Amino acid sequence: xxxxxxxxxxxxxxxxxxxxxxxxxxxxxxxxxxxxxxxxxxxxxxxxxxxxxxxxxxxxxxxxxxxxxxxxxxxxxxxxxxxxxx
Length: 86
Fold this sequence. Notes:
This protein is 78% helix and 5% strand.
């Protein structure tokens, strides 16, 4: 157990390993929340929008469905920062 705590308190660059793990955990949790939102809630809203007479709600849902996080851009920007901290 003490070895694990030593690893968590190890400084990597200017931050602790525990800080990096916390950031990764928050990222993964948000990714899961957005995935659930996209798969279930948007499909439910889409079904509700088909029952309405206007097309405005369907247009809004199609715009939200097209929104994607820029992971390609994200990874290319973060990678040099991580390398500089080593």
